[in-house]
């Protein structure tokens, strides 16, 4: 029979191993647990189709995607749960079953005919206004970025969709510092001091719809196939990066920067950009409407030439008539 000391030593060993196992599976944004070491614990983080990327405007290929359709984005949720998980501010919303926000069309049309359903949204930000976003546009970073995570409705839950091709999609929105912002972010950031440390959470009273947290303009966007930007870095994720940024004030942005994780400020929680490799970056082609003061429409040269010939022939017929009318008018005047 084991002695009491033996049991204590065994228990301590198990605790150390368990703690070490949990710690080895954790990740961070600097030091030995930073992005450059993620691949040591999570093999997929060393994949060839990773996110984020630099969106190179010159090399983006225009593509005429189907209309992007958003459903229930203006439905008020039953509740909003905000938590500090040590990596980001994670937000989950609860809805009645038939009122969950969903997205169809656009780049998702080729992935799933039934569309994608909202799962959660979270944020990435920097310690100052020059850094923070994960994707870059022409090597330009925004101070923060919002990720709205969606699940392909062909799969019953997030876990089963995670390892499947095109099982997950992310709608990405950049933030820009402004003097004003939407009411949604004022109320949202007012609650951040209540989750100032890792593991803390809060429920929002009088929750606002998902549409209050995204950009108002959804026509202009880029799309590519990438990965999750945090471990396990699962690939075959459809990314939709919208070009119209969300306004946020400096005070509201600083509320994110005051959050802590592991006794240090939770800041610069963005992954460095990854090589595009053999992927194609697409830009949604937008049909420009013709208005009175709008752009000049393209002209069909053949039809234009035919039209000119018709008018030329008509002019040859009408010119003698015009001359005759003029002469008669002159004669009539001379008779007075």
Automatic annotation (TrEMBL):
It comes from the Eukaryota. The keyword Glycoprotein applies. CDD domains: alpha_CA. InterPro entries: CA_dom (IPR001148), CA_dom_sf (IPR036398), Carbonic_anhydrase_a-class (IPR023561). Gene3D superfamilies: Alpha carbonic anhydrase. The keyword Protein biosynthesis does not apply. Residues 25-285 form the Alpha-carbonic anhydrase domain. PROSITE patterns: ALPHA_CA_2. GO terms for molecular function: carbonate dehydratase activity; zinc ion binding. Residues 1-24 form the signal peptide. GO terms for cellular component: cytoplasm. Keywords: Glycoprotein, Metal-binding, Signal, Zinc. Its EC number is 4.2.1.1. It is an enzyme of class 4 (lyase). Belongs to the alpha-carbonic anhydrase family. PANTHER family: CARBONIC ANHYDRASE, CARBONIC ANHYDRASE 7. This is carbonic anhydrase. It comes from Drosophila ananassae (Fruit fly).
